[in-house]
From TrEMBL:
Protein name (database record): GNAT family N-acetyltransferase
Keywords per UniProt: Transferase
A GO molecular-function descriptor: acyltransferase activity, transferring groups other than amino-acyl groups
Signal peptide location: none
Domain N-acetyltransferase residue range list: 102-230
Domain of life (superkingdom): Bacteria
Record-linked Pfam families: FR47 (PF08445)
């Protein structure tokens, strides 16, 4: 594994330019995941040319979600929908999976309807019909219900993002998220990569859970949602 974490300053761009290039649409200035996977998008830099290239990728109803080191400066071709701060956290050694009697199963395309329902209800981030193709999804079923899930998202050559951490409200407080994040993170280490994740800075409860797993805050980024101007 490489120790150069600087690529994580622009993780979506580097994912779509390397390990996830087969999921990418775009050019040498701006790229996005295919819309049936999700709205994550990246730019090589924040030049006006890169923003304009991103705008050309978007349809009238599309949004682009970016992780930026600085506050966004979109041109007239793009409209800022929202922007909020996010901690990027990284785990440098395999976490210990909690010693509990939990059923953790690999999720498949047959589980997608339940996964979408859970994601739409809890809003961990965009989850669409083919998001599962990004890999590594695990879930905890309880009484026939998908109570909690976690998976992978941005894949770079040496790093993989842990994402879609969500649990139905009635199943929270049972340690499901901690167990799933540890399990998925260990799966990343088994691929000889380093896991990272993003979490809203005001979500202090989630930050504490991730710290207990072994993640540390690396830096802050600006989650930026843009739409093409009409």
């Amino acid at each position: 594994m490489s120790n150069d974490a600087s690529v994580l300053d622009n993780p979506i761009w580097h994912a779509l330019s390397t390990a996830h290039a087969h999921f990418a649409e775009g050019d040498d200035l701006a790229k996005r995941y295919r819309t049936d996977i999700g709205p994550l998008s990246g730019m090589r830099d924040t030049s006006p040319e890169a923003y304009h290239s991103l705008a050309r990728l978007l349809g009238p109803d599309d949004i682009a979600v970016l992780f930026l080191t600085d506050l966004p400066t979109p041109p007239d071709s793009l409209r800022l929908i929202r922007c909020f701060p996010m901690y990027q956290m990284i785990c440098l050694s395999p976490p210990q999976i909690p010693d509990r009697d939990l059923t953790i199963k690999k999720l498949t395309t047959a589980d997608v309807p339940e996964m979408i329902e859970l994601a739409e209800a809890t809003e961990p981030g965009p989850f669409r019909q083919r998001t599962i193709e990004l890999g590594g999804y695990r879930g905890i079923p309880v009484d026939g219900c998908l109570a909690s899930m976690t998976g992978q998202r941005c894949g770079l050559n040496d790093f993989t993002e842990v994402s879609a951490v969500c649990t139905w409200p009635e199943f929270r407080g049972r340690g499901y998220a901690k167990a799933l994040v540890a399990t998925v993170a260990n799966g990343v280490f088994e691929q000889n990569k380093t896991p990272f994740l993003g979490v809203r800075e005001d979500n202090t409860g989630a930050v504490r859970v991730y710290e207990k797993v072994g993640f540390k805050i690396r830096r802050s980024l600006h989650v930026t949602v843009l739409k093409r101007s009409q």
